[in-house]
# Entry
Amino acid sequence: MRRGAIGNFLICLVGVGLACVVTPARADLYAASAAYKKGDFPAAFKQFQELAELGQPTAQYDLAVMYAKGQGVAASQTFAHAWASLASTGGETQGAELRAELEPNLTPTSLQISAELQAKFNQSALDARLMPRFLKNREFETREAPRRLKNPAPEYPEEARRHGVQGEVYVEFIVAPDGRARLPRILHAVPSGYFENAVRENIMRSEFLPGRINGEPVATPVSTFYNFKMNYTAGDYVGLERRVEETLKKANDGDPSAQMLYGMMIAGLPQLKQSYDQALPWFLKAAQAGAPYAQYQVGTGLLMGRGCRCEAGKGEIWLEKAAQNDQPDAQVSLAEYLMREKSNPEAVTSALIWLDRAVKQGSNSAKLRLAAILAASPSEAIRNPARALALSEGLDRDYGRDPSLWEIRAAADASRGDFKSAVKAQAEAISGATRLNWDLASLNARQSAYRSNQAWTGDLLAY
# Structure
């Protein structure tokens, strides 16, 4: 086992400080290395194996070493040779050295077994089963990307200004067919608790030329990276360029957290003049190292054909890996994907389970999505307006100025027969949507139903 290499990895990881990347309970290089150093070889072996099967060269080499030494698994020079060979093919030089050391001692039968294992996890097999097929110099496979028309500067939060706090936020959101932003989802905020609401408000006030497929406007995902400084000077832009360069260097050196941060920078900083197809390979590297957030990015990219060819089967695998590792955004996105099969009871049940799991982690995005389903589901067995209202009560801080929250409350009130409250809540939604210049057709249609003492069912978050 390469003790020195693992030590360097740990130092780099702590230095970047991305809390969304590192959670020792899951299978990532940090957790696997930590388990190995503690002498917990069974746990280390299991985690290295999971990452090795995703094509991560460092994990493949470390797995080979554990097979060679019989650490956490029965010793096998044959399997050690196979994984060392795969690591070598992936660019891990010590893999080639270990393979050369083992090969003279293997019989022809053992070499054949090694070759069969390599064929199962070589690049061709991974490409067919998991890997994105990247686009070239364009963000989407089948649609035109949205373009920002109005980009008001975000207000610097007073609390952050008063305490001299500076920071950064990475946010994803949907540009609806009317060119307005919906449901901003904060994916990275350092420090936490200062800038998120300012970013949400700024996103909601922005205007876009919507994405299009065959000339028709469609809802499309967008990413933006915000950098908050107390007083911008020319030197700050130079400093940002320097930070981008430093992050790229760490990413090229194999630091998964830097790879993920650099992917965020490419995706969210227009001044870098790069498109999402150039961000996705960096997310993939971090995903192969076990970072659930990066696995979420790869999964959603594959599902939507963003940065790569649209391959839903591969996307679902990556999303489920991230969701199983309790990445709440992946759980929400996987639920949204499953909810497309509304006629499939098993898919709907699975979607609700994933949303519940994300809610238990405190994900406000999951609470909003689950509340929308429970408030207005066409299925009486699923509809639960009381719980929808209970979930919505804790969302004012993040979504209080978002018309969608008021729409959920209105639909839930109507579902339980309180049409007076429904009309009042829907009026709040319409007022907020008017302020944001949203298309009001669907909101007004729902208000007409409530005024006629009729409940409304359907997808409140569809555009």
About this structure: The chain has three domains: 3-129, 147-327, 333-451. The radius of gyration is 24 Å. Strands lie at 147-150, 167-175, 181-190, 207-209, 211-213, 216-218, 220-228. The longest helix spans residues 234-252.
